């Protein structure tokens, strides 16, 4: 696998960074994960826009313009052997000494990328859906920043793994927020409900795309706060992310969701998504 570090491509095993990197010491950095189908990044403009917003939110300059990013990313993609890929990209505030929480006076960012094979959800997961558990959202109040400091998300995701399910759905103050590494939408009485973007959630590129596809196909849609009770009584629950596309959640905390099978709106949306990505 070929990686990219600070303007240079090399085998991943040959790329090295300083142990003083603020990404390593403080989790001081941001990232993106971009799905690639047939060597073509999906919604690249939107991913690069969110990257720029994350950098601005942590007071870091963007090391490259959008066009430059697009060239680097395509070069990375073209050097892999898989046609469907997941590009991971992260930028940290770089190495600094002595260790000090405050921003260093002079910084040289560390820009790192690699691509790996994108494994779309199995046909079994698409056909039968997946299970989830729920948890109180223990994260901070700037979840709109795609920050590499993911300890809370890691602990929350492990709850799902320990329970033998696919995702942990997060509630804060009685409202649906998102999943540990995905966005969550629900269907009630034929209407697709999506939680409104805020500083408490990461607005997924897939979430935006699903909303766009719902509008295009005249699927009834409401973007509004969703109570925990509404989720538990939902006819359908969907999970969206760059690696999982759109999946139906058919069990939550051991309780059956709707019919217990992926619902009709899910099946329609899955179809729209497959057409769009190709
Ligand atoms: N995670 N919310 C959180 C907390 C996420 O980590 C992700 C994605 C999403 C969905 O965003 P998108 O549709 O842009 O992938 C929502 C990625 C896949 C990751 O961390 O690898």
TrEMBL record:
Enzymatic class: transferase
Domain of life: Bacteria
Any one Gene Ontology BP term: amino acid biosynthetic process
GO cellular component, one term: cytosol
Protein EC: 2.6.1.21
GO molecular function list: D-alanine-2-oxoglutarate aminotransferase activity
InterPro entries per record: Aminotrans_IV, Aminotransferase-like, BCAT-like_C, BCAT-like_N, Class-IV_PLP-Dep_Aminotrnsfr
Keyword Aminoacyl-tRNA synthetase assigned: no
Keyword Glycoprotein: no
Family: Belongs to the class-IV pyridoxal-phosphate-dependent aminotransferase family.
Name of this protein: D-alanine aminotransferase
